[in-house]
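User: My collaborator sent over this chain with a note saying "see what the structure looks like." That's all I know about it. Can you take a look?
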Amino acid sequence: MKIILAKIKRLAQVLLLFISIVSLVTSCAMNPATGTPDFVFMSESEEIRKGKEMHEKMLKSMPIYQDEKLTAYINEVGQKVAKNSHRPGIKYHFTIVDLPDINAFALPGGYIYINRGLLAYLDSEAQLAAVLAHEVGHVTARHVVRQDSARKGVSTLSILSVFTTGSMALADAANLMGTAAVKGYGREMELEADGFGAEYLFNSGYDPHAMVETIGVLKDQEKFARYRAKSEGKKAKSYHGVFSTHPRNDIRLKEVISKAGEFPDNVINDAKKLASQKNYREHIEGMVYGINYDARPKPKPLEKGRYLHKKLGFSLLFPPEWQVENTRQAIIGQPDDKSAEIKLMIARNVKGLSPEDFLRGAMKIKMLQRAENFSQNGLIGHTGMVIDENGDFSQRVAVLFQGSRVYLLKGIVNNAKSDIDYDKMFLKSIHSFRPERSIIKRRKSNTIHYVKANDKTRIDELAKHMKLGTYSAQQLRLINGLYPRGEPKTGDWIKIIQ
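Assistant: Without extra context I'll predict from the sequence alone. Here is the result:
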């Protein structure tokens, strides 16, 4: 009897768990884009809250492209598309990520990102709208939320299988099945986002076939990446960005795009296409291409009293009230009363000599007190005190090796004052010496500019004048939609890199 009661009690627990799961799932609303029930574990308000939380983390971890005009343009196009989507009521945020990689992605709740690198390869506002509409499609269909819920559903299924069978093996199998299901959503969800995106393009006055154009551009980039990897003996990187699941001639994609609608020939005409290209051209002009060197952190201001030698790339700290003079023989710092001085001289290293040997030989010092080797900021050195004939402190001397260059530092007391610890002051200056790598000439970023082609314009000739490395011609053809061997026509606007 006890065994029967125990089984009944356990069955009741399982049933209660099952009812709670069903209640949780069936409480979800209809998907606004698909019109079917959303079996998800996240409300819209929770989705937006989660998206905002993730967005704030992204802003702290990702570089954001600082161009107000271009950012406003991306936002304008994105908002236009989002307004004509299935979820126009939520607030959309469009952000340009300052990376040269080709990608775009979306977070839940209306947070959409497009890499600066992708913008370089697009040719028109319609193509830009196609990318943004695709990402809006992911948001309206709640793809991230659905994937998250699928994973949570798998975990619940695993727990339920353990309750009913007591077998952890079945729980592991459920996890594997769930993982496969979630991974399987990739192709279908991307196609679903394409369908919604094409619809939003059409509703916004853009030609849905701009999606096909954009895929062609990105597939050329993939083809080049494989060619480059093979040429360099490397493994080609797998591309996981926007439209990555589509082959170049994707029949299913064309089918979903055709469902969005067709404009009459007199609506999508050459004039409108030229206007779309012109709008895009005007906003992309001057955009950074490749690595954005200008976005690197600026050097921090030097503290008071630090002398900076820009040509040789080092700095040295003097007492703040001292005057510093750069003479032909040395850099000399002194107070107004010239009671002491710190002198820095430069010499060439002698191969085989240690800092100590060099110091004693160069300065002709036989006796050093409190002498010691030291290292700082990647340099090695030697320092010690010089005592005069009366046994009083006279100088603090030091050398620092930097490659073939030697820095000789000398702190000298001319008229000692009782309230100053000269050796401590000299050591502070010696140990403040450092190479200033931040003042090495900063590379300028490459930027995109447009020129009109004439009858003599050839990509290979243009590439010779651009510092894009080994693959200059291929890069120019890629950003102009001419890969692998195309040439511009007379009168075409083409991008160049300067």
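A starting point for your reply to your collaborator: The first strand starts at residue 93 and ends at 97.
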